[in-house]
Amino acid sequence: MKASKPHLLIVEDDEVIRSVYTQYLTEAGLSVTEASTGAEARTYLASEHHDLVILDLGLPNEDGLDLIREIRKRANTPIVIVSGRSDPIERVVGLEAGADDFLVKPFLNRELLARVRAVLRRRGWEQPSGATANGVPTSGVTTFQGWRLDLPARRLESPIGDTVHVTTAEFQVLAELARRMPEPVSRRDLLALVHQREWSPADRSIDIHISNLRRKIEVDPKVPRIIIGVRNVGYALAP
Amino acid sequence: MKASKPHLLIVEDDEVIRSVYTQYLTEAGLSVTEASTGAEARTYLASEHHDLVILDLGLPNEDGLDLIREIRKRANTPIVIVSGRSDPIERVVGLEAGADDFLVKPFLNRELLARVRAVLRRRGWEQPSGATANGVPTSGVTTFQGWRLDLPARRLESPIGDTVHVTTAEFQVLAELARRMPEPVSRRDLLALVHQREWSPADRSIDIHISNLRRKIEVDPKVPRIIIGVRNVGYALAP
DNA sequence: GCCCTATGTGGCAAAATGTTAAATCTTGTA
DNA sequence: TACAAGATTTAACATTTTGCCACATAGGGC
Questions:
Q1: Is B54's pLDDT higher than 60?
Q2: Nearest Cα residue to B51 out of B89, B6, B21
Q3: How many CA atoms lie within 13 A of A239 on its CB side?
């Protein structure tokens, strides 16, 4: 199963509110980065990956909608807006700008968590516990180009039904690429997944795993069509 | 981008409200099936595919949460709940049961539509506007002078059908020229696309890419007929 | 025609990526 | 503990892509 936690970016200028969110969500098993201004948020957005962004629309000296568009321009990161104003039109505008959900303050921490989880669920994150009592692991299997990646069973199945053996590291790399498909994933993120270690520009181990994976799943490893290298960024799974 | 319309199932016992939803969403370009009871909903769920279900929690003789779990058991169809009660706990329970969003009546039709679209967007349905992922427009195939530029596949095809290999930077330059055809595009704009770096008048890298592109696609690179240089402005693609 | 600027292009050098092979580490087992 | 098999990392080298310099050519104003 997935080893690491979903990583959130919280953009909220009020320090008290921000720390309340952070504490509650951290206790719920999520990892959090905090930003208090639009500028700070941009710095984090440029330097690390986030599985979801919680954004306060009422930042001082900042148009929250612009920030949404910037996030969408870079990647398809899910966004949950929180706002102090209860104007329905503002909600429509926020959602149409690309947000995934919109909460009006005040709200229960539980509702924030429930809505964040609902969005993450759609992005391939397992429900932490209990709630998926209906036992159908539809969210545990991803497919790409006819291949089936069975997360719970840790199995990779080819388009013709054969089970292809992959090592642990290879599987984790592939699973992360699949989860974020079609966005590219940085070598740094991929390495952090397979081994708790810092990444240096000279570290080629991810490239080796990619190379080995390609030999196993690409029709012609010389012309990769499934695992695409993105220069200066990392690797992506073609949709 | 998918071709046909998203198909919705609306489960709502109040006939007036139901027809209001149906009319509004149909006019917005969605196709709709209506169900007034849980039993009717089950029939439709068993016999046709839905891209999203709008479910009223307050059905008579029916526990809406059970219906949610049944839907989740069959498939991973997105669910948007609407409810007359404004109890926050009910929202949390609904979302944790597997719903993707939760609206409390009364609400604007526009907000329902915006939330439905936000969920569909996550499921891969394109918004009307030309969203971009990775800086390259995700929609469509452009053609110029017999050449085919396949944006999603990142492929360039010659008039006789051969695939011509182009590098990432070359492809992005060509894609932008194609998008703005036949208007000329400045070097500054083009450079901003391939690499977020400032442009100085001495920067010739765009010229190099143009030169390399011409060698690949022009009949006679000495007399360019496809990529036209516009003095003091930039480059344009001939229509 | 002359001069200044803009553009076209060949030729490296630097940086990033793909790949092979050897070294190192892990894990299961006797 | 020692061994063997497999997994992972390191090292080294090949290849691709990109940036930049230098020089040639062309345009336009005087």
A1: yes
A2: B6
A3: 13
Question: Does the CB of A196 fall within 7 Å of any strand C atom?
Answer: no
Q: Which two tokens stand for residue B183?
A: 């208007």
CA A213 to C1' C19 (Å) is 13
Reported as a pLDDT band with limits 50, 70 and 90, residue A130 is very low
pLDDT score at B196? 65
pLDDT digits (tens, 9 = 90+) for A43-60: 999 888 899 999 999 999
**d(C-alpha A114, C-alpha A49), whole Å:** 22
Tokens for A59, please give them. Answer: 């930042």
Of residues A31, A35, A24, A53, the one with CA closest to residue A113: A24
Asked if B170 CB < 7 A from strand D, the reply is: yes
Residue B112 CA to residue B103 CA, distance in Å, equals: 8
Pick the more confident residue, B237 or B125.
B237
State the architecture of A7-122 in CATH terms. 3-Layer(aba) Sandwich (3.40)
- DSSP secondary structure of B135-180: TEE-S-EEEETTEEEETTTTEEE-TTSPEEP--HHHHHHHHHHHHH
Q: Is the pLDDT of residue A168 over 80?
A: yes
Bases on strand D under 7 Å from any protein CB = 6-12, 16-22, 27-28
User: Has residue A95 got a pLDDT over 50?
Assistant: yes
Q: Could you tell me the pTM of the whole model?
A: 0.78
Q: Are B34 and B44 in contact (CB under 8 A)?
A: no
Domain ranges of chain A: 7-122, 132-237
CATH fold label, B132-237: Arc Repressor Mutant, subunit A (1.10.10)
Helices (H), chain A: 15-27, 38-47, 64-74, 88-96, 109-122, 168-180, 187-194, 205-217
